[in-house]
Amino acid sequence: MKDVYITRIAKYLPNKPVSNDEMEEKLGFLNGKTSKARRIVLRNNRIVNRYYAIDDQGNITHNNAQLTKEAVELLCDDEFTTNDIELLSCGTSSPDQILPSHTAMVHGFLKNRNLEINSPSGACCSGMNALKYGFMAIKSEQVTNAVCAGSERTSSWMMSNTFEDEINHLKELEEQPIIAFNKDFLRWMLSDGAGAFLLESKPKGEFPLKIEWMEGFSYAHELETCMYAGADKLENGFLKPWSEYPAHQWSEKSLFAMKQDVKLLGENILVKGVESLKKSIEKHQITPSEITYYLPHVSSYYFKEKLYEEMIAQGVEIPYERWFMNLDQIGNVGAASIYIMVEELVASGKLKKGDKLLLSVPESARFSYMYTLLTVC
């Protein structure tokens, strides 16, 4: 089977960085009041900048497919054009619509040529699933190249007008007019952007990255839903979809807002993450000491120290000095985060031939995990 290499990397972050003091102005105030959760969440996640596809006048500047299209085009030049792409595989947590698929819309904006497309659904792991599809397609000689991408445009999901009907409904019932913490929590963590890789069957460029292996795990058989959108979680843990509610309740319950069960997240995300990491490195017979850079996608720096402690507890310690993260300056870009991390590390000039990069992506939606080992060639 063919070897597979990442030969080009690009990222696209819309507009200018948004600081902590500017973000509520951009997203809007709920019930005209500053969020009580905002400072608590920001103190824990330690994010200081993020990007929104919203201009200074509050206008939407890009949808998700457009962000992805920009990243894909940044991969290309006169030597490799969009017309040379054989396979387009794009993952996201926040597609612009239910149908058509996200990648079909990206292809529509590229306007290049007829090609195969793939649209994995899900949350953060969707970007890695997009990568694995391209990896397998080249490895099995279905194609000689693939463009894989991860992207998010969640800012529009987090704007205050998304929650207006719910706030008004709460007022009518004479309840406290605030949005549940499980919804407000995510407003202060998420960012917009896209990243893209060009995969080829031959090493090209200054520092091509060979994909040694990719592994995925799901714990949905053990654990109930943690993060969700387009549904409501009932007391018994069952996820009731939007299609089973009358239309007037879609906005009253903010059914299409992203929500996260924070308690369930804290109890499981790290334990299952390290358990699956351990399975991956044992299967592929690599020791933590062989890893030059560990790139963990985490939603908050709050989890960094706890993740390290869990690694020690399970016997797979990777020292802090080998960790590479950019969450504080980029924000949580979901499915795009790992692409943007790799792009920044490659651009830093720190890499040398033989370095090994371990990519780690958790997904809290129903507790899924993806891992990839790259070697610098």
Question: What's the structural blueprint in terms of helices and strands?
Answer:
Elements: E1 5-12, E2 18-19, H1 20-27, H2 38-45, E3 49-50, H3 64-75, E4 87-92, H4 102-110, E5 116-118, H5 125-139, E6 145-152, H6 155-158, H7 164-172, H8 181-187, E7 193-200, E8 209-218, E9 227-228, E10 231-233, E11 239-241, H9 247-252, E12 259-260, H10 262-283, E13 293-296, H11 302-313, H12 327-330, H13 337-347, E14 356-363, E15 368-376
Helix pairs in contact: 3-4
Strand order of the largest sheet: 5-4-6-7-1-8-15-14-13
What is the CATH superfamily classification of the largest domain?
Answer: Thiolase/Chalcone synthase
Radius of gyration: 20 Å
Count every helix, treating DSSP H or I runs of 4 or more residues as helices. Answer: 13
Per the principal axes of the C-alpha atoms, what is the gross shape? globular
> The CATH topology of the largest domain is what?
Peroxisomal Thiolase, Chain A, domain 1
Architecture overview:
With 377 residues, the chain is of the alpha+beta class. The strands form four sheets. A nine-stranded mixed sheet has the order 5-4-6-7-1-8-15-14-13, sandwiched between helices. The protein has a two-stranded antiparallel ribbon with strand order 2-3. Strands 9-12 form a two-stranded antiparallel sheet. It is built from 13 helices and 15 strands. Mean pLDDT is 92; it is low at 172-178. The chain has two domains: 5-207, 3-Layer(aba) Sandwich (Peroxisomal Thiolase, Chain A, domain 1), CATH 3.40.47; 212-228 and 258-376, Thiolase/Chalcone synthase (Peroxisomal Thiolase, Chain A, domain 1). A hairpin with a 5-residue loop joins strand 10 (231-233) and strand 11 (239-241).
